[in-house]
Amino acid sequence: MKRLDVLCMGEPLMEFAEVERNGERLMLPGFGGDTMNVAVAAARQGARVAVFTALGDDKFGRDFLALWDREGVDRSEVIVRPGGQTGVYFITYGPNGHDFAYARAGSAASQVVPAEIPAELISAARVLHVSGISQAIGNGAAEAVTTAISIARTAGTLVSYDTNLRLQLWPLDRARAVIHAAIAKADIARPGLDDARLLTGLTTPDEIADFYLALGPGLVALTLGGEGCLVATPDERRLVPAIRVEAVDASGAGDTFGGAFLAEYLRVGDPFAAARYANVAAALQTRGHGAVAPMPTRLDVEAALAWPGVLRNAS
Fold first, then answer.
1. Is residue 313 included in any domain, yes or no?
2. Phi/psi at 67 (nearest 5 deg)?
3. How far apart are CA 88 and CA 84, in angstroms?
4. Does residue 243 form part of some domain?
5. Number of structural domains, the chain?
6. Where does the pLDDT of residue 98 fall: very low under 50, low under 70, confident under 90, or very high at 90 and above?
7. What is the pLDDT of residue 252?
8. Considering the chain, what percentage of its residues have pLDDT values greater than 90?
9. Is 232 a member of any domain?
10. Other Cβ atoms within 10 Å of 26 Cβ, number
11. Which end of the chain is less packed: N or C, by CB atoms within 10 Å?
C-alpha cells in the first residue's frame, strides 16, 4: 500500500515580500517555490506529503528544513549540498499587482541529476507532482524530472504536472517541447490559461482542455484566474466558478489551488468537488501576504464551505 499521498519535486526559494507597516516599506521573509508551495498546501489539508529537492548548506536551506518539519512534510530524501546555495526571490507591488525578481542562478536545486532521484519514495507516493519550473531551472533538472516521471509510471504512481511557464528561464519553443512531452506522460494536467495560450496557440478554455486531453492525461484542471477553473475529463467537463474575496496578494494562490486540489481529489475521488474545494482554499490564501504564510488549513476551508459568510464578498 502507498504510504504517501503526494511527493513534490522542484525548487524551493526563500521569499522576501514587500509590506507596508507604520508607513515604512519592509521586506517580510517567507517561503516559496511552486512545487514546494504545493507541498505545504496539501499538507495543511491533511495529506501525507513529502518533498524531494536539493538545498544549499546555508541559513535559507536550514529554514526550509525547519518549515517542513513544522508542517509535517517528509524531507528525508532532501539533498543538502555543502557550499551550495538556496535560491531567493523578491515580491514587490505596483499598480498592476505583484512583480517578482529572482536570485536563483546556480541554486542547489537546479543541479539535481537523474542519478539522485529517490525511486523508492516515488513508488511510495500516490501522486508525483512536478512543474515546468522543475524542468526549466537546468538541463540536469529537466532530465531528472523525466526520470522521475518514468519511475512513477512504472510504479503506478499518478503524475501531476503544472505548466507554470517562466520565459525568463527558457525560450518558448524549448518550453513547449519539454512541457508537452512531460504532460503526454502525466495523469493530471494543471495548466493556467495564460501559460496554455502561449504553449498551445489556442484561445478558448475548451480548445485548450481538448488539446491537453488529447496529449494523454485523463484529467485537466485549467485555472482561469478570476473566472475559476475548467475541469475536464474525456467524459465530462464543468466550469467551477471562482470564489470572490477582498484579495491582498495573489502570489501563491495557484500553488495553493494545486495542493488543495490534489489533497481533496485523493480523498474523495471527484475532480469537480476537489476544484470547488481548491477554489475556496486559493481564495482564503489571497487574503494575506506571501505564498506560504496565509495558506489555509482544512479546518479553515471546511468552515468557509459550511458558512460562505466567512469569505467576504463571496459569490
1. no
2. -60, -50
3. 13
4. yes
5. 1
6. low
7. 75
8. 76
9. yes
10. 12
11. N
